[in-house]
Amino acid sequence: MYRLKSKNGVFGLRYSTLEQAEEAKQHYIREHTKDKSFLVERQYRESGMKLLQSECEDIAAAFMQADISIIKG
Known about the structure:
The protein is α+β, with helices and mostly antiparallel strands. The chain has 2 helices and 3 strands; from the N terminus they run ββααβ. Strands 2-1-3 form a 3-stranded antiparallel beta sheet. A hairpin with a 2-residue loop joins β1 (2-6) and β2.
């Protein structure tokens, strides 16, 4: 059984295969990219930089890709 894990803990369903867990991870990232992109935009704006929305979404997706891992258990 596989689960998704981030710095905030384990979340999501239990998946029988690694492929199902990877698919769930990609789905989660697609669904939450826009929400996280606003946080990225705010961070960069506070630093005096301005980014396009698509750039913020790319950065947010990369952050989530690195943050979320698949664990066995």
